[in-house]
Structure formats: structure tokens, C-alpha cells
Amino acid sequence: xxxxxxxxxxxxxxxxxxxxHEALLAHCGVxxxxxxxxxxxxxxxxxxxxxxxxxxxxxxxxxxxAAIDSSEFTALVRAARTHGxxxxxxxxxxxxxxxxxxxxxxxxxxxxxxVLHDMTMLRRMETIRRDFVANVSHELRTPLASIRAMAExxxxxxxxxxxxxxxxxxxxxxxxxxxxRISEDLLILSRIESRAPFKKDFSLSNLICEIVQxxxxxxxxxxxxxxxxxxxxxxxxxxxxxxxxVVINLIDNAIKxxxxxxxxxxxxxxxxxxxVATVADSGIGIAVHDQPRIFERFYRVDKARSRQSGxxxxxxxxxxxxxxxxxxxxxxxxxxxKGSTFTFTVPVD
Length: 349
Ligand code: ADP
Fold this sequence. Notes:
Elements lengths: L6 H5 L2 H14 L3 E5 L5 E4 L1 H7 L3 H4 L4 H5 L2 H13 L3 E7 L2 E9 L7 E7 L1 H36 L6 H33 L5 E4 H18 L3 E5 L5 E4 L1 H17 L6 E9 L2 E8 L21 H6 L6 H11 L4 E6 L3 E9 L2
Bound molecules: adenosine-5'-diphosphate.
Adenosine-5'-diphosphate binds next to helix 10 and helix 12.
């Protein structure tokens, strides 16, 4: 009969401790390297080689600082070795930002432990957030300054001139509407970012036809022909409100950027495992170098034109976010002076 091991016996089994350490090093998500007293790599985990973009063989038994060739990295290792204290800093290696900790250990075999944390994504997100806040402030400042200047001029005496007063009041109303649109678009963006779309089955063709009908007066006023070619029942499983926003933004843009006499056509069809929808216009088109950037927040090819037509520069960023949150793709194909075709897909299982 085998005797059950006591918990103390289980705790001190060296083999199981080694196995636990091995599993921990393999899955802990941080890079770990042990160096000997001459700074050569005695052992490392796979994540360390991955973060340093050097294969394990080129690191094992080689000087770490020579393999990495970074003065910041070398300074950290030297500081830890010379002063016998942990040294730590952020180091940029090629495109990656790593937080490097170098810990002196009291062991003969590997007296130095190097731990690497990948900070690249976090720092990138911080930069994006900082730029976004700066852009939002900039976008809000222009209409606010204009409203203030108009109100001050009115108070300074322009109120007595009915024609001038009327013009200034119109501008104040337009600018405040612009501020409302920006804040609405920002709210839409933050809503999409903060929660997954609530999906249900619905007919994308019905949604497209309804929106086309809603936009017909706007298209007629702009002397643009707007029509839709969609099959009767094109079922998708998606967030209906979000999909409505996508179609509205694309049709609104297509009409805005198409001169009188042009046309806008919305087409949707099922192709294998996805529904592909396109909004094509015969408008002003987009230069090749602008095409990859138009989905960025606040990016506008022609700021004055976008402003004049009531644009916020957020419409396509919203489109991209929604479509990608549904697992689909967005694309643009455009020829300046001839027109643009925007495509989005919705996966169907
Ligand atoms: P906006 O509110 O300025 O229209 P969007 O994010 O919707 O912002 O679009 C970004 C920019 O992409 C626009 O300012 C415009 O320069 C360009 N753009 C978008 N749609 C079209 C289109 N159908 N034809 C030509 N240019 C377009």
C-alpha cells in the first residue's frame, strides 16, 4: 500500500519545483535572462529572445550587451554590476520600448538577472490618447473663438446694424451646431470603443433602402442622383444602430463630395461568407497619398471644404471602428476628379 505524501514532502520536491519554475518562465509573459559574472547569457526564456528580436542560439553563451548593441542597455547592466543594486529604465530597441530591470543576485552561477517588460503598446496608446486630446481641443477652440468674437462684436455695437447682426447671429448658430456635431461624434466613438455592439438579425437591404429614402431630399437639393441596388433579403447579424451609422456616414459623404450632376449608388450583395456593401460616387475623388489617412480621426483632405459642408472629420473614423468591431473590413478606391468607392464587409456565418 502506498503512503500518502505529507504536504511538507510535496512542497520540497526539487523536481516539481524546477518544473514549476520552468512553466512560470515559459508563460509569465515577461522576458527573463540570467547572466554570468562576465555578462554572458547563461539561460533565458523564449519571450526574452522574442522581445530582443534575436534567436536564442545567438544569445546563449554570448555577451548580452554585445548582442544587443545599445548604449542605454549597456549602461544599465554596468550600473547594476558596479554598484550591486537593481537598475531599471525604459530602453528603445528598434521599434520596441522595453522596461529593463537588471537585478544583481547573490549566486555564483548567474549573478545577474535581467527582466524585460514590453511597454510598446502602452506607450503607443498613450501617444494616441495625447494626440487625440490635443486634436479635440484644437477642433473645439476654432468654433468657440468664433462664437466669442461674434458675441463681443455684437455687444460692441453691431447689434444696432440689423444686417450685420443677422449675419453674426447666423454664424453663432452655425458654429454652435458644429460644436454639437463634434460632441455627438465623439460620444459615438467613445460608445463604440467602450462596449461591443448588441447584435441581432436584420435585413441590411431594408436598412439601406430606408436610409437612401431619407437622404433623397438632400441628394435632390444637391442635384445628385442617389439610388440603391440591393437584393430583397440580405440578412446580417450585427448592431442595427451601428450599421445605420456606417451607411449614413458613407452616403452623407458621397453626396457632400459629389458636385451637381453626379450620382451616388449603394450596392450590397452576399459573397461567400460575408456581405459586401459599396457606396460609389462620381465626385471629387481622393488623392492616392490621402487615401490611407482619411480613416484617421480629424483627418480631412480639404479642411475648408469639410468645414463648409458641416463635416467633423470623424465620420470615417466612426465607420472604420464600427466595421472592425463587427469583424469586417473597410476600403476605399478612388480616382481624383472621377469619384470614390467605399466598401465595407460584414461577416456572415
Ligand atoms: P468629414 O466630416 O470631413 O467629411 P470624414 O471622416 O467623413 O470627415 O472624411 C474624412 C475626409 O475624407 C473628408 O474630409 C474628405 O476629405 C474625405 N472624403 C470622405 N468621403 C469622401 C468622398 N466620398 N469623396 C471625396 N472625399 C471624401
